[in-house]
Every structure is written in C-alpha cells, then in structure tokens.
Amino acid sequence: MDALSAWIQSKEVWIAGITNGFTAKVMDQNNGSGYSMNYYTDYMQLVLSRPRYTWIIVRLCCTNIIDLTNLSTVELLYDLDGIGITKITLGTSALENPNTYEISQEINRNGTGTVTKGSITLDISNLSGKKYIFVEVVTPNSGESGSSTVIANFRIRRIIAYK
C-alpha cells in the first residue's frame, strides 16, 4: 500500500490545533508530584513536576473513541524535553474500563534532559470495535537533578490510526 492510499484510509485520533481531546488520570504518584496539560497550535503538552526521589505516572486518554475495525496501526508522534521521563506507552483500552489496557507498545529511555523527537507504532490488526487510545508517561523514583524540583515536558503532535 502506498503512502497516499494509507493517508486516505487513516482516522485522526488527535492532531495538533485542536484545543481538547484528552483526559488525564494519575495512575500512581508520590508526595508532591503533579501535572498540568495545555493545548497549543502545534501540540498538546503534558508538564510533569515532582520533587527529587518521587514519581508520577499519568495516563492521557483520547476522548475521541475510535472504531478500530479494518485498521492495522496506530501511530503517535511526540517530542519531549526536561528531566525524568523514562517510559512512554501507546495503547488501547476497552470502553468499559479505560484504566486497563488490551494491547500496548512502550518506549524505554534514560530520562535525560535533551530534546527528543520520536514516534511509537502499535499493531492493532487483531482488534476490532470501538476503543480508547491512550498514552501513558512514567517518571522514575530518582534524584536525577541537582535542583529540588524535576520538570519534564511531553508533547503530542499527532495520533492517527490507519490500514
């Protein structure tokens, strides 16, 4: 299948420029950690803030429910900077229980403060029906910064599903 054909048969889960589209849920955290979400023209940004030696795990669930029947791939385009994000997960969950997951793909990283651009692709060819798409961001329980507060910025540029 060529790129044009795949684009024509794609479904936008979320694209930059939309000023809503995610709910956030803290899956786990330690004292003093928190998050904020903001929408901008080119991305949606999740800011994670925590004291050293604490952690936070935030799940961003797309509010746009997608019928995955006859689709094969979900793709997330993202970038991040700051210190401390060590795992990013792209997954699907059932409508009945969005706190669980059916399938997922994760990227593990060392949590450095350099700007990183990336993508995660998720094979959904064995799924069908309406599902939630989620992105989960994890910080470790460590003191990787000399300051008392560790801040990381995670930006979603686009999430699409296609054949």
List the helices and strands and how they pair.
Layout: H1 3-8, E1 11-15, E2 22-29, E3 34-39, E4 44-51, E5 56-62, E6 66-67, E7 73-82, E8 87-93, E9 103-108, E10 116-123, E11 130-138, E12 149-162
Please, could you describe this protein's structure?
The structure is a single chain. This protein is mainly β. The chain is built from 1 helix and 12 strands, in the order αββββββββββββ. It has one helix spanning 3-8; strands at residues 11-15, 22-29, 34-39, 44-51, 56-62, 66-67, 73-82, 87-93, 103-108, 116-123, 130-138, 149-162. The strands form 2 sheets. Strands 1, 3, 4, 7, 10 and 12 form a 6-stranded antiparallel sheet that branches. The longest helix has 6 residues, at 3-8. The relative contact order is 0.30.
